[in-house]
Amino acid sequence: MSGALFGLTFTVAAPFWVLMILLPGWSWTRRIVASPLIVLPAVMIYALLVVPALGEVLPAVASPTLGGIRDLLGTADGAAAAWAHMIAFDLFVGRWSWLDGRERGVPALVMSPVLLLTILLGPLGLLAYLLVRTRYPVTGSA
Question: What integer pLDDT is reported at residue 140 of this predicted model?
């Protein structure tokens, strides 16, 4: 089951990335991406993988050690759960960046590479956006 869920995880998130990167000006993109519920499918996959293993997961994350986390993630279920975790949070960060970028007037040609970096290397994409946003003050009235 973990293999199937692993494969499904990016599939459920990909349409939202396509909207933000390839169709940023489409009216439906803003309507869809405005909802934080777009991360729900990846969160549900994460829950399907983690909830049955809470007895193993909670001790490992409540008192983490490098060896304990390595052992937890070194299984098919652990790797699939970690992937779902990353996909859900990367999408949430990408969504926030995209919405904030739209509010600030960041051009799509600037945002697209940042969003691609967020998909591939989440924290580096966040860092890139935090740097980009310093160049674009919030537009409109306060």
Answer: 62
